[in-house]
Write a structure and sequence with these properties.
Chains A, B: Belongs to the gamma-glutamyl phosphate reductase family. 2 copies of one chain form a homodimer. Helix content of chain A is about 45%, strand content about 20%. Chain A has 15 helices and 16 strands. The longest helix of chain A has 19 residues, at about 5-20.
Chain lengths: ~425, ~425
């Protein structure tokens, strides 16, 4: 079978299963989710054996320590994946909910019902947990899924997908609902990009390179996710103690994730009072500082920031700092460089807070809080399938509701159009 | 200026205007809409002069009668466009509405606010009224618009766009909010497909060729609209009098639109009783019938239906008819050939009605009514910008709410992530 044939065959099977999945009983879906969770825990040895292969191959290939850590599966991490499925079991089933229902003057009764998207394609990098999280959320929302993980994790993904799909099918989930593309050839991704007949949406999860490749090449509708060049603007009327705590949290609590701060903007009137201490503290925490001319004068070991720094999502212990003349200038900088993910202002001023919330164009806009909160769990959506940075369909953290669409159902008594 | 430069310049201007439009006062937008409506009526002579050029050119080019009729602007049609803008003025402004607001355990207050998409691109064919309708809906919902109409209507579109944008800008709408691409070169469309930096969504309106070209070539997120290969299934437990009225309405009341019926499916147990009279009546109304073998025996002058007939959206006085063994078979036929637009069942049976509503995958699913009702006005959405046949973002008739997205606004008091 050619690569194209393999991928199309799997997509077709998912498409076929999706029809049955759309009207599946909630209790049955929940039972399957619990069985999938148990199966993961019962098959740790099998999963470890597969994971070991990936780790060995990764070591030979010279993967970075961070990547190797992402690949690694431990008993605790498998338990976490299983508990993720148990958490999804607890969610309300969104499918079949009537969001509105109205009667028209001609007595037609028109309702809007929540239904699954159908088949969701996921293209992601080296985290095997995405395989489980995505399968669980899709199953609960009545969607079939076509998974395409990174080649580095292929053995782990295969083992995990086999374990959960076997448990799912044994518990009444239609065969074909969970599909993993097993070839690691890049051609498979090109094939997926053109599967409009079988896929209803494609969600990429990974670095900017992966996401841009999907956005630029897929004819299947894409939900763009994840890249976060996030800013925090410290207004001249900020509570400086609060500002300092928020900055340190937004930069250092977990710098490798998309909602971490990448650029700090500081109003010129408080730069001299505020920055020296903050820069020192950040440097103590191993953060490399890159700044404009004024910033460079307010500390030591500060690299001169270039245009590229304002554009970069470091995902690392690096922070760009710029001194800004006004709220308006801060907003202009943000709009010039941001990726529409998460932006924050720190201020005590009522009008500036409202202004910032109103005018900044991003998925999440904050007053007096760390951008690190942009997350499905923190926003109360339960689990998340990704963070949308586009405007169509969903924006910000996407939970189970964002894996649904609607259809109009119309109850008539013989109405015809005049 | 090259074609690319012209198009990019207009998109940039729209993008710039969109920032201001997003926070525009509702009263100001309403005043502008009324001024635009008045300006259309005050400038009929100018618009007629431009329209005459298009009509002459169309005549030379040998456009079909139907296309010539679409192109033609009359005093009545201009009044209708103006009244469309007045109707939009009456709509509630969707922008700024807080759709939900909750408090998290850490006291963060997280709200979801309705905001404009930003800049919407419209690629459409030869109806100058789309220029006005789309501009009005986008303006009310705080979006800038980049219009690209068919070359046949270019002079009419230019005149109309000039009249309404002048009136808009004179009434406080930011300059640049309404952009018409004036070159008729096809290269302009290729440029639009890649304007991800400036456009937030692209909506094609027209025939299947246009829509497929946009879906297959645009990297800007597309909302696929309009193609409707709609079915009506007459169950063996149907009220045959009602069924007949609905069929005639769905096929002949306005066959050239996307919600008209294209294929009739009839249960085998009532085919002999039901079809002869219906076929005769349809033929009297100039409908050409194409049918399977059984259908051909139940009337005269019936052409043998081919695979192509089941696939075709005729948009004409042609109907394909197939005799079907069961509800399940009808659903299978629909899923094989439909474009996920509008599908109907005619039945008196409670269970079959519910089954059809549940399992059929389409934007609008009907029991005992004509598919012709799938329309923003008929569904109570006010005006419509198109009918989405995809599942992401919007499904079915799209009104002003479908031209919006959301953003999360987060009110903190210094919260940091643990």
């Amino acid at each position: 079978m050619s690569i194209k044939e393999e991928v199309v065959k799997k997509a077709k099977a998912a498409h076929k299963a999706a029809r049955k999945l759309a009207n599946l009983n909630t209790n049955l879906k929940n039972q399957a989710l619990l069985a999938m969770a148990d199966a993961l825990e019962e098959n740790v040895d099998k999963i470890f054996a597969a994971n070991k292969k990936d780790l060995e191959y990764g070591k030979d290939k010279g993967l970075s320590e961070a990547l190797m850590d992402r690949l690694l599966l431990t008993e605790e991490r498998i338990k976490k994946m299983a508990n993720g499925l148990r958490a999804v079991e607890q969610f309300d089933d969104p499918i079949g909910e009537v969001l509105e229902m109205k009667k028209r003057p001609n007595e037609l009764q028109i309702g809007k019902v929540q239904v699954p998207l159908g088949v969701i394609g996921m293209i992601y990098e080296a985290r095997p947990n995405v395989t489980v999280d995505a399968a669980g959320l899709c199953l609960k929302s009545g969607n079939a899924i076509l998974l395409r993980g990174g080649s580095e994790a292929i053995n782990s993904n295969k083992a995990v997908a086999e374990v959960i799909s076997k448990a799912a099918y044994e518990n009444g989930i239609p065969e074909g609902a969970i599909q993993l593309v097993e070839t690691t050839d890049r051609e498979a991704v090109q094939v997926i990009f053109g599967l409009n007949e079988y896929l209803d949406a494609l969600i990429p999860r990974g670095g900017p390179g992966l996401i841009q490749a999907v956005v630029n090449n897929s004819t299947v509708p894409v939900i763009e996710t994840g890249v976060g060049n996030c800013h925090t603007y410290i207004d001249n009327e900020a509570d400086v103690v609060m500002a300092k705590d928020i900055i340190i949290n937004a930069k250092t609590q977990r710098p490798g994730v998309c909602n971490a701060m990448e650029t700090l903007l500081v109003h010129k009137d408080i730069a001299e009072e505020f920055l020296p201490e903050v820069i020192k503290k950040l440097q103590e925490l191993d953060v490399e500082i890159r700044g404009d001319e004024i910033v460079q004068k307010l500390g030591t070991d500060i690299i001169s920031a270039t245009e590229e720094d304002w554009e970069t999502e470091y995902l690392d212990y690096i922070l760009a700092i710029k001194v800004i003349g006004s709220l308006e200038e801060a907003v202009d900088h943000i709009h010039k460089y941001n990726t529409k993910h998460s932006e924050a202002i720190i201020t005590e001023n009522y009008h500036k807070a409202r202004e910032f919330l109103n005018v900044v164009d991003a998925a999440a806009v904050y007053v007096n809080a760390s951008t690190r909160f942009t997350d499905g769990g923190e926003f109360g959506l339960g689990a998340e399938i990704g963070i949308s940075t586009q405007k169509l369909h969903a924006r910000g953290p996407m939970g189970i509701n964002e894996l649904t669409t609607t259809k109009f159902v119309i109850y008539g008594e013989g109405q015809i159009r005049e």
